[in-house]
Give the backbone structure.
Amino acid sequence: MGRIRNEEVGGPRGIDLDLLLFGDTVMDSEYLTLPHPRMLSRAFVLVPLKELAPSLVLPGGQTIDQALAALDYTLEGLKIRQA
């Protein structure tokens, strides 16, 4: 995509794609870590994932409900707030 790395931190980017899961693949390479290494600590990832796949069992055997139970977050309409 020709992304320029000297862009403003937190500013707009041409593309930002986070791959969360790829089936049951578990890997850690120089270019890609699956599942996403911070996925289980982010309610803004897990809440929509639960809507898409409510019975999904994550690599390691944890359910989305179990992962969410470990987080301090609130839902306010469509907003997900996390402490």
Observations:
- The CA atoms of residues 1 and 18 lie 15 Å apart.
- The longest helix spans residues 43-52.
